[in-house]
Write a structure and sequence with these properties.
Length: about 425
């Protein structure tokens, strides 16, 4: 039993000695670094992916890929990066051992963020265990801190192999990489020229945008206006959602609902694109049926990396109630005898309304019909829409709850009940019509 125990420790000592020998050899590998150009028969060690683009504050990973040109047992290197732009957070062992079905250990994985260095070393145990199939030495986790380009340079690369059971340097070549850290463009403000908008009138929305790479880096400036119960990315409609944009590639201004809603001649973009901040002025108008309520405005800036920044100004605009209407004629002529009920000579009137809010249509008279000292009661006059009313000097509703829209037409039929004892004459009065919300 004591002999078995001694044998177990003896085996462990041989393993520890093997590690010590290999580590001392690996520490000497600093004399071999990556050369320029391909090395015939060399084991390649490279950053994977070689390049990538990440946002400020984003976590990302870098793999150290190994492609042995011959069986090797040990690899050591330093990965250097810009500590002002990125920081390493963790090093994880790769799959070289699993791929090669052998025991491969990542024995050095030191992070020195202040210097911008990650030290890596890995090796097999024993002379019969080697690496001959491609795999990953390690995966390094990073977080980006500031915008800029950080190199990911493999330096002090050393690869070891056995030659006649003697550890020697193996030919190797390094492929470095890099990471581009970008900050999204920033919308600093988005402000309408006025807080109250009448549909059909022109107003401006000014978006102030910043980009660390300069305004020349911007691909699109987008401004949206939408009613308070709509989402920014909802479908556009003349009722409640508008999208406008500026295309810097040809200095053109656009509206998704048609050019009638943006006045390109009164839109302005910065002239000096080398600046990091500028104002984009959109001259826009809303359709006459735009919903009368609180509206939000927002702006988005999209850069050449298809990264965007955005800002919403909630309830920045109140769209006012809009109403316009017309009659197909402005005179009514009745002719009849006492006791008769008559209609105008030209028949019913057509009223046409454009409005952004549901409405009632109402009519009234200022008083009785009159002529040369005679009067005829105003209540003898009727108007018929979806209901019939006898007119007075107060507004009476003849159409109720008509839906908003453009050029909404309704018919009003007029009638006059001439009293049996009404004296002859030419009677006159005025008709007042009203759209009420």
């Amino acid at each position: 039993m004591c002999g078995a125990t001694m044998g177990k420790f003896a085996n462990a000592s041989s393993v520890l000695i093997s590690f010590a020998v290999v580590l001392s050899v690996l520490s000497a590998l600093a004399i071999q670094s990556a050369g320029v150009g391909a090395v015939p028969g060399a084991t390649s060690v490279g950053v994977s992916p070689s390049t990538q683009t990440v946002l400020v504050g984003e976590n990302f990973t870098v793999g150290i890929a190994v492609n042995p040109a011959e069986p090797v047992y040990g690899i050591a290197l330093e990965l250097r990066f810009d500590p002002a732009l990125v920081s390493a957070t963790e090093v994880l062992a790769g799959d070289l051992g699993a791929v090669n079905e052998t025991d491969f250990y990542l024995v050095v994985k030191n992070i020195f963020n202040q210097e911008g260095i990650v030290e890596l070393a890995g090796l097999t145990v024993g002379k019969v265990n080697t690496i001959s199939s491609p795999g990953t030495l390690a995966t390094i986790k990073f977080i980006s801190k500031s915008a800029g380009t950080s190199g990911l340079a493999i330096e002090d690369l050393g690869v070891r192999k056995f030659e006649n059971e003697v550890p020697v340097l193996a030919p190797s070549e390094a492929s470095s990489g890099g990471v581009l850290v970008v900050a999204p463009p920033e919308v600093l403000s988005v402000v309408p020229s006025e807080a109250a908008w009448d549909p059909g009138n022109e107003y401006t929305i000014t978006a102030t945008v910043g980009d660390n790479n300069g305004l020349s880096d911007l691909d699109n400036i987008i401004v949206k206006a939408y009613s308070g119960d709509m989402a920014p990315d909802a479908s556009d409609s003349e009722r409640d959602h508008y999208t406008f944009w500026f295309d810097p590639s040809d200095n053109s201004w656009h509206s998704s609902l048609g050019p009638e809603f943006i006045d390109a001649a009164n839109c302005f973009a910065p002239e000096d694109l080398s600046e990091n901040e500028g104002e984009y002025v959109f001259a826009v108008n809303l359709a006459k049926i735009a919903e009368p309520t609180k509206w939000n405005v927002c702006a988005q800036a999209v850069d050449s990396y298809e990264i965007q920044g955005s800002l919403e100004n909630a309830e920045a605009v109140t769209v006012m109630v809009y109403t316009e209407f017309s009659l197909d004629r402005y005179a009514l002529n009745f002719s009849g005898m006492p006791g008769e009920t008559v209609n105008p000579e030209l028949g019913p009137s057509i009223v046409t309304v454009t409005t952004n809010k549901d409405f009632d249509f109402r009519v009234r008279l200022p008083g009785d019909w009159t002529t040369d000292g005679l009067t005829m009661p105003m209540e003898t006059t009727t108007a018929t829409g979806d209901t019939t009313v006898a007119l007075t000097d107060s507004y009476q509703t003849v159409w109720t709850g008509v839906g908003y829209g453009e050029d909404v037409a309704r018919q009003i039929a007029w009638g006059l009940n001439i009293p049996d004892d009404q004296g002859p004459g030419t009677y006159r009065t005025s008709f007042y019509v009203n759209v009420a919300h």
